[in-house]
Specification:
With 265 residues, the chain is α/β, with parallel strands linked by helices. The protein has nine helices and nine strands. The protein has two domains: 34 residues, no CATH class; 220 residues, 3-Layer(aba) Sandwich (Rossmann fold). It binds 2-acetamido-2-deoxy-beta-D-glucopyranose (2 copies).
Amino acid sequence: MWLIAISASLLPAIIIVSSRYRVKVATLCHGALAWASRMLQRKVCVRSAHAFVFSNCTHGKADSVLETFDLYAETHQSVCIGPQIGEGLDELVRRVRPLQVLELGMHCGYSSVRLLRLLPPAGRLITVELDPLTADLGEEIILVAGFKPSQFQVLNHSSAEAISTLHSFLKVDEGTREGFRLVLMDHDPQQYLPDLLALEREELLCSSGCSVLLMKRNQSADDLRRILDHLKTRTDCYSIKTELQFVLEIFYQKESTRSADDSRK
Ligand SMILES: *[C@@H]1O[C@H](CO)[C@@H](O)[C@H](O)[C@H]1NC(C)=O
Ligand SMILES: *[C@@H]1O[C@H](CO)[C@@H](O)[C@H](O)[C@H]1NC(C)=O
């Protein structure tokens, strides 16, 4: 009896709380479900794209690997970013001219190959993929495209785990360890913000300037808003550099290097 009495008196509060949060909870659940189903589709798709490209491309030629992926996407559902987005991405990479690039979310290896072919001979790509099979297949595609193991590293971990070990993979230049000048995030959009903050905390973003590219294709408007809201509180070091339909480019620069730049002008 007393239970009913307590429940009844709590009812208005419960209704208020649940109606206030229902939308949020629903979008969270929806986001998680959509992501899980995409992951399942992705596995099937990655295997079949890999088989198609492996047997139909000219081995040793990065451009042939990319063209064969595009050919596959003409007749199959594909998780690759495709030629249009690819060319937009190329433009950003050519402008930033990074030496070391970090990619979170490798998928079929398409964007890894696109990035690698634009790096200088001493350049290096570190790519992180949570799913071990996808990581293995992606690694094979990079080798098929003609890149040498010294030019890239595939890390087969969650992004959070990988970030905590990245220091040991960064090349040391003249005794100083320079962070990444380019980071491409194309993994779970809910990890974009925590991973960005972890990269900053671990001093893995180049302090004199780093472009972080957030691919928007799997991202909900909510995920994006959360990131933008956070960045508004950190205008000391973050700014939005480019916003295109497929990507948001965030520019990171540490205050100390920024004011040094300003005083030099
Ligand atoms: C290679 O390409 C042909 C024709 O474009 C296609 O029929 C075949 O299935 C592909 N190979 C694999 C292993 O997918
Ligand atoms: C991923 O991890 C598994 C198990 O730890 C290992 O067998 C596999 O070789 C790894 N793949 C890559 C590409 O590192």
